[in-house]
Amino acid sequence: MQRVLILTVGGSHEPIVESIRHNSPDFVFFLCSDDIGSNKGSYVQVIGDGNVLRSSFDMASPDLPNIVTLTGLQADGFEIRRIAKIDELPDCYRVAAAAIRDAHARSEDATIFADYTGGTKSMTAGLVAAALDDNKCALTMVTGVRKDLKKVIDRTSLVRSVQIADLQLLRRVKIAEELLARYDYGAAREVIEEASRLCRHDESFQQLAEFATLCRGFDAWDRFDHQMARACLVGLSKGRCGKQKAFLEVMLEKRGHGFEMVEDILLNAARRAAQHRYDDAVGRLYRATEMTAQIWLNEKYGIETGNIDLTKVPEHTRPSLEEDSDGKGRIRIGLIKAWDLISEMPDDSLGGKFLTFRPELLKFLSVRNESLLAHGIQPVGEPHFKLHSRTISSFIGAVIDLAIDDLKKRRKIPATQFPTEFGYTPALR
Questions:
Q1: How far apart are CA 106 and CA 109, in angstroms?
Q2: pLDDT at 428 over 80
Q3: Which residues contact 341 (CB under 8 A, 6 or more apart)?
Q4: Which one of 32, 98, 172, 337 is most buried, by most CB atoms within 10 A?
Q5: Closest C-alpha to 140, from 3, 334, 310, 343
Q6: What is the predicted pLDDT for the residue at 145?
Q7: Average pLDDT, integer, range 2-26
């Protein structure tokens, strides 16, 4: 197993030498400043000719050879990576990240140490950031006894490992929270599961386990796998996402007003829109509108839209419905014909509401049918979605209220949008 050391170089040479001697690397990457054309970059400390280093800051002139000579490194045992803009963090990060990638390329199982003791603030920040992003580097620094904030006392330096697991954990929790903000529960779960492998504390691990389970549950729910969602969410803390869990139970147990699935689809459409997936969102609005008609016809009249019983519909509507026979004795009708049938039912309050919305619903259907996920090639944009979403949501909300009153049912649990934060603070100590 090869040991690779990556160092930022600048300031005193002593910490650099100490780090090389302590870590005993098989290969060293020196990240150095490059004062082009002046021969004054920190790379001179590494490979400069003659005496280029001072054994003490009090020395009037250099009295020691370069770092390579002091540490006995061979020509094939190191490489210098020059950073032209040593105060520009992006440039420092780019060079450091490239060195880390090349360190991995040298050996699949390489042990990589990143020592950020030397160099400018941007150089050290760039190396630390690249090491944290890599997730496989060990961070080290050289420190010792101080008499002030300027310098460690000579010959008191020791190499110190820097614990980065907690930092990586917190970074991943932050990433997961950003994913939750856009309802990407599947990706958030993957990040949290990765973070859990960095845990060194039982309490923190338990929090992350619950976090991951919540993400798994809402991801399943977001894909309409309600049984899996229930299995994930049912055993969690009683107060955690209580409104959503209660609504899920009512929907699955069919103990509510009967239109919970429609409300669930509308909330799903809103989540797709929040992700700018407007074609998907419009498809869900269409299904919610269609399902509302299907549920009402079945609950109120015992009519199945996939197999219309003509004896249950007004006689004057039968010729039109017979046109939708599939040739096998089954009459199937779609969204508009289902709502038209409802409007033909005597004294149907939902049918009356539909007639007032019908022109707007036809405009919505035109947009939906021309979309890429229906029958056309036109993608749905945000303006179209927002316009028709308001129409559909208003219409469905109104007819569900009418249906609940007519069926003498009640709204046990209001439909509540999924959470975008779970409020976890991992215990680090």
A1: 9
A2: no
A3: 297, 303, 313, 317, 321, 333
A4: 32
A5: 3
A6: 36
A7: 91
Average pLDDT, the chain: 88
Q: What is the pTM of this model?
A: 0.74
- Tell me the residue type at 82: R
Q: Using CA atoms, how far apart are residues 308 and 299, in angstroms rounded to an integer?
A: 14
Residues facing residue 234 across a β-bridge: none
Q: Which residue has the higher pLDDT, 272 or 366?
A: 272
The 10 Å CB-count burial string (b at 16+, else e) for 95-134 is: bbbebbeebeeeeeebbbbbbbbbbbebbbbbbbbbbeeb
pLDDT above 80 (res 15) = yes
Three-state secondary-structure class, residue 278: helix
Burial (CB count <10 Å: 0-12, 13-18, 19+), residue 61: exposed
Cβ-count burial of 89 within 10 angstroms (0-12 exposed, 13-18 middle, 19+ buried)?
middle
Q: Which two tokens stand for residue 373?
A: 């996920």
Is residue 411 scored above 60 in pLDDT? Answer: yes
Torsion-angle region of 332 (φ positive above 0: left; ψ -120 to 50: alpha; else: beta): beta
